[in-house]
Design a protein that fits this description.
single chain, alpha+beta, 13 helices
Length: 480
């Protein structure tokens, strides 16, 4: 969910933990659920609204990080007789547990999103639901919104259906294990098809001009009382799995636009100035970007295992600024209503345990397929959802940004005064002595200021660490 993933491995030092606790306090993060919310969640977990349609015969599997227990999605993939494919994608049915207007619903609207800190997360829903009764854990029957999406031999969508169903996952898989099974040829067909379908959908993404950012995760690791920070590159299986979610989000957008009521995830095309700034960052990091090559093509050619390319991919997330949600009713679909990175109409609908808007998008799609009017509680909530999601996103972005700063400060706090090799990847237009540097070792991106001369954008520079304080979440360099 976050754009910049960072987590702590091993026993984190006390100053880091203390700084993260202080950040939670400063941002008034609602970690504990009120008693009324917990009571309602406990009751809902024992008596969810179960669907009549039984799809527990389908052997679903989930793919998530090893420690994840809030499992929103499960899939089953199969070949069709005509040479195409069938994607069954089960999404946790949060509405089976949450009563509109109740305490649990109100708390979800207050939280909006699950928040991710390096040392843990602050969930959207109580654990009894998000990690228990509503999570698609293996071996347990669960209410779900069951998508059935048929594809032709090229991976193009030819039919879509979604309905409420009872499902049961058979296996809980992780990305590394999935990649290993597919690479060594031991994966059974439902899993092996993830690569086939994922690659077909990636090719179609390229064809329509879309782009997926495979942003590496930053990881801080404690070993023998010392710390290191490095990038962990995503696996191909991460991207193939993401393509199934994108496919569903695009199918959902089509259902809602055809029905005339919905909420889309939209992103305007990046302005020329933002792309020009990113091009300068690419030059600074040694990423080859010829003038005749598009932004999408250079991103696809970037190698996330290369530290400089990893830093560039992180900088690419700046072009995602401006993303929001667009509501439409009574057939008045806005134009344009496209997500620039997807290069098509798209919505969020596959992570309802962790994102508020997905519960509403799912309800709209079920109603559209059934030919019904959306429930009144959905229609009543739609006008306020874009602002609610924007407020939640601002808080999540602050958590993400400040957490990264805290972790980097904790890593460097014993090294104030040391000299590092860095590349100047950004310079402020109106303050040319202030900018951003990327260190190759450790994997740190931080502010630089204090010199009298203009910073040499795109060039190598020796820098001195002048400040690193986890308490203030501040890392600052100066020209050496």
């Amino acid at each position: 969910m976050p754009r910049r993933h960072i987590h702590v491995t091993g026993a984190a030092e006390a100053p880091l933990r203390a700084a993260l606790r202080a950040l939670r306090t400063e941002l008034a993060i609602p970690e504990d659920f009120p008693a009324a919310v917990l009571a309602e969640a406990e009751a809902a977990a024992k008596a969810p609204r179960l669907p009549s349609y039984d799809a527990t015969d389908l052997p679903f599997f989930t793919i998530d990080p090893p420690a994840s227990t809030d499992l929103d999605q499960a899939m089953h993939l199969a070949r069709r007789a005509d040479g195409g494919y069938r994607v069954h994608y089960a999404i946790a049915d949060v509405a089976a547990f949450v009563t509109p207007g109740g305490a649990l619903d109100a708390e979800a609207h207050r939280r909006v999103l699950t928040l991710y800190f390096p040392d843990g997360r602050v969930p959207l829903h109580p654990a009894v639901l998000s990690e228990g009764a509503a999570s698609l854990l293996p071996g347990e029957p669960r209410p779900a919104l069951l998508w059935r999406i048929d594809l032709d031999a090229e991976g193009r969508r030819v039919a879509t259906d979604v309905r409420r169903a009872l499902v049961r996952s058979r296996a809980r898989l992780d990305y590394a294990g999935v990649q290993r099974e597919i690479d060594d040829g031991t994966a059974e067909e439902p899993l092996a098809l993830l690569r086939d379908i994922g690659r077909l959908r990636e090719a179609l993404e390229t064809e329509r001009g879309g782009i997926s950012l495979n942003v590496p995760e930053q990881e801080i690791v404690e070993t023998d009382h010392t710390y290191s920070l490095a990038y962990r590159a995503p696996l191909p299986a991460d991207a193939w799995n993401a393509q199934i979610s994108l496919l569903t989000g695009m199918a959902a957008a089509d259902l809602m636009t055809a029905a005339g009521t919905g909420i889309l995830r939209t992103l305007p095309t990046a302005p020329d100035g933002a792309v020009a700034r990113l091009r300068r960052s690419a030059h600074a990091l040694g990423v080859d970007w010829p003038h005749h090559v598009s932004y999408a093509d250079v991103v696809r050619s970037a190698d996330p295992t290369n530290p400089r390319h990893a830093a560039f991919l992180q900088e690419c997330t700046t072009l995602l600024r401006g993303a929001g949600y667009t509501v439409f009713t009574d057939g008045h679909v806005p134009t344009p209503a496209v997500h620039a990175a997807v290069a098509d109409e798209y919505t969020h609908c596959t992570a309802p345990l962790r994102r508020l808007v997905d519960r509403y998008a799912g309800e709209l799609c079920v109603a559209a397929v059934a030919g019904d009017e959306p429930p009144e509680w959905v229609r009543a909530a739609l006008p306020a959802l874009p602002d609610e999601m924007a407020t939640g996103a601002r808080r999540a972005n602050t958590v993400e940004r400040e957490s990264v700063d805290i972790v980097e400060a904790a890593l460097l706090r014993e090294r104030v005064g040391e000299i590092f090799d860095a590349y100047v990847i950004d310079v402020k237009d109106h303050e040319p002595s202030v900018g951003t540097v990327h260190l190759e070792d450790p994997a740190v991106v931080a502010r630089i200021e204090g010199g009298a001369a203009k910073l040499p954008l795109g060039e190598w520079l020796r820098v001195r660490l002048s400040e690193a304080d986890p308490g203030s979440a501040k890392v600052l360099f100066a020209p050496a």
